[in-house]
Design goal:
The protein is mostly helical and 494 residues long. The strands form two sheets. A three-stranded mixed sheet has the order 3-5-4. A two-stranded antiparallel sheet has the order 1-2. Helix 8 packs across helix 15, helix 13 crosses helix 17 and helix 17 packs across helix 20.
Length: 494
């Protein structure tokens, strides 16, 4: 039986989820559905009744999240309006600001990417005041209306995570993976773009990690049939679930989403056509999210099903599935690639994994530093300096505000990359390298998914897997990358 406050908050969450879905599907329903108005007084009363910690504390944090969203929306709408019309000019081509990442992933021309860099710097200078205004409203509301000393304290309480402890882990991870990364980045970047790391910028990194230059190795067979067959053989027929709606819309490479409306009764996945490795990764990632939602037990309380304290656990499941589709064994067994091709692609993907994990670890450190020092806008120089130091690529200070994520979500991604490596090792040790083809592994996922959001990531590892959540399995994977340099020299470009 739901109490009155919980039902009100859940109604607000569902309305906003429906609006998010409509927005991504370009459905006018977004404008016709009005957000549910949660008031400050309701938030304060809920905190008095339930507190702000533990499972019951999630009620307050979800109420506050809806209130913050309503407070920010008018400013965000103005920002979005200006951003929607912003376009970069690259040799006569219009590149919409919202499509920059997709454009870079597809763009093999170094000169065009570098022209875009300077165009985007100018656009960011113009748009920065609008972006900063949304953060000002958010931070002012938290500090003045709810007495949080800073944004980090708020995120730490909401996520129920020790941010200072994870700050040390992220710093340790960067230090321990630096040599592996530096030994490979110059060679890979040079092979793919003919650039040195001193010449390269963030937009070159986007192209590098998009893997479009390997799409000539993408199988020409019916990909959908191969994917459906893989899942069906595991007892998961993706086409049979009435509570899973998959929308294939837009272009290849579009931003993909998994949006639950009501867990586990209605979950939507939005993807583009699967025409290359990046599309395949996106599909498996979002399906990893979706399966964790549709198999959540209906017997859980609303707080344990719907009220997220963190995205880290769901991201961990998503990353596990993303790793599956780019593994050597999957590429050979399911897609029929040669062992040589599969080995090369899986190793390049492993390097991409390392590069992305380092990126999010660095972003996390930067965000903690800047929010603790109250340098939301003024922290852009620290951002550019740190990103250059840890990734090797030039990051322009002007782009800082547009690389910020709410709730320090860079931590969720970093935790999930680390956790997925731990789970990967757990299964390999128990079932071998083809563990994902075995029913025993899927049965464990079913068991874990039924828990919904009842546990945070760290408690999940302690109570369900009973193995430490540590960077060591990831470091072991890095050691295997040493062979990639020789592989590049002997195999590129087939």
């Amino acid at each position: 039986m739901l109490d009155f406050n919980t039902q009100i908050i859940f109604n607000a969450i569902k309305i906003n989820r429906k609006r998010d879905l409509a927005l991504q599907l370009h459905d006018d329903l977004y404008n016709r559905i009005k957000p549910y108005n949660i008031t400050r007084e309701q938030c304060v009363k809920i905190r008095e009744n339930y507190g702000s910690l533990g499972v019951r504390g999630r009620i307050f944090h979800q109420a506050l999240e809806q209130y913050l969203r309503n407070r920010i929306e008018p400013v965000q709408a103005m920002f979005s309006s200006w951003m929607q019309g912003a376009k970069a000019q690259v040799k006569g081509e219009d590149v919409p600001f919202s499509q920059v990442i997709i454009w870079c992933q597809d763009q093999s021309d170094n000169e065009k990417r570098h022209i875009l860099r300077y165009e985007i710097r100018s656009l960011c200078r113009f748009l920065a005041p609008f972006s900063h205004a949304t953060w000002q409203v958010l931070l002012h509301t938290l500090e003045e209306e709810f007495n949080y000393p800073n944004y980090i304290e708020y995120c730490q309480e909401k996520k129920a995570v020790d941010i200072k402890a994870w700050y040390k882990i992220a710093r340790q991870f960067l230090d321990k993976t630096k040599d592996y990364y530096n030994e490979l980045i110059e060679e890979i970047l040079g092979r793919i773009t003919s650039l040195t790391i001193e010449q390269a910028c963030r937009f070159d990194a986007i192209y590098l990690l998009g893997l479009r230059y390997l799409d000539h190795l993408f199988p020409v067979c019916n990909i959908s049939d191969s994917i459906n067959s893989f899942f069906t053989n595991l007892g998961v027929d993706l086409n049979s679930f009435k509570n899973l709606i998959i929308h294939t819309t837009g272009k290849s490479g579009r931003q993909s989403y998994c949006i639950p409306i009501e867990i586990p009764n209605e979950v939507h996945v939005i993807i583009g056509p699967i025409k290359g490795w990046l599309d395949l990764e996106s599909f498996f990632h979002e399906i990893g999210h979706a399966l964790s939602f549709i198999f959540t037990s209906k017997d859980l309380s609303l707080e344990e099903r719907e009220f997220f304290i963190s995205g880290a656990l769901s991201e961990t499941f998503a990353f596990c599935f993303q790793k599956i589709c780019m593994s050597e064994e999957f590429l050979v067994d399911i897609f029929g690639l040669s062992l040589k091709e599969a080995k090369f692609i899986s190793k390049i993907h492993a390097f991409k994994w390392l590069a992305l994990t380092r990126r999010y670890a660095t972003k996390f450190l930067v965000e903690v530093d800047n929010f603790l020092d109250s340098k939301v806008q003024r922290g852009q120089e620290h951002y550019a300096k740190m990103m250059k130091k840890e990734t090797g690529f030039d990051y322009d200070p002007e782009t800082y505000l547009f690389d910020l994520m709410p709730d320090i979500y860079s931590l969720d991604y970093f935790q999930a990359y680390i956790a997925s490596s731990c789970i990967w090792k757990y299964f390999i040790d128990a079932l071998g390298t083809r563990w994902f083809c075995q029913q025993e592994a899927l049965n464990l996922f079913f068991k874990w998914w039924q828990l919904g959001n009842s546990l945070g990531l760290e408690d999940f590892f302690k109570k369900e897997i009973e193995i430490p959540l540590t960077i060591e399995p990831f470091l072991e994977e890095c050691k295997e990358l040493i062979n990639l340099k020789a592989l590049l020299l002997s195999s590129w470009p087939f």
